[in-house]
Amino acid sequence: MTEAPAAPTPAVPAPAIGARRLVRAADRATLATLHRPGDAEAGSPYAALVLMAVDHDASPILLISGLAEHTKDIARDDRVSLLVDGTAGLDEPLTGPRVSLMGRIRRTEEPRHRTRFLARHPGAATYADFRDFGFYWVEVARAHLVAGFGRIHWIDGAALLDPPDDASALVEREADIVGHMNEDHADAVALYATALLGQPVAPEGCQWRLTGIDPEGCDLRLLGEGGGGRVARLDFPRRVVDAEQARAELVRLVKQARAA
Question: What is the pTM of this model?
Answer without folding.
Answer: 0.90
